# Entry
Amino acid sequence: MHFGPYDILRDLPGDRNVWEKVRETLSSLPGLPLGRHDIVPGVMYVNVEEYLSRDPALLRPEIHHRYIDVQTVLSGMELVRCYLPKDLAVDTPYDEERDLGFYKAGAVACQSGILDPGHIAVIPPFEAHASQMWVFEGESLPIKKAVIKIAVNSVMENWV
# Structure
């Protein structure tokens, strides 16, 4: 996981045009309604959602193979954790069609960060991750979040 202010985009590997499009998308997020929005059909889209942050012990890490996640919080703050898949037990096997698989909750994270407005987590494919976690134990906060999904082959082959 790459974590930090939006400026980290300039240091990421791959096609500079893709990362510039991500930067443009980040600047347009406050005006987007909830739901899915295609940015570049077949290459990049964004989901805008709202929920309450939850107990980290209850959240299952997920994994994708075909998409890079760029996650940001538009309001509130949440904890994001990444895990080494080799250290996890499969809960729901990876589904190629949905580009999604889940591991059992309760594992020890190898990296974590707090997302708040102005910061992003860039999560490459094949890296297990969980978000929507409360920052302060027992304190569920309302979160408005955007997840930009980028087809990995649009950035570079085998970007991990």
Q: What stands out?
A: Helices lie at 16-28, 152-155. The first strand starts at residue 2 and ends at 5. Residues 2-155 form a domain with the Jelly Rolls fold (CATH 2.60.120.370).
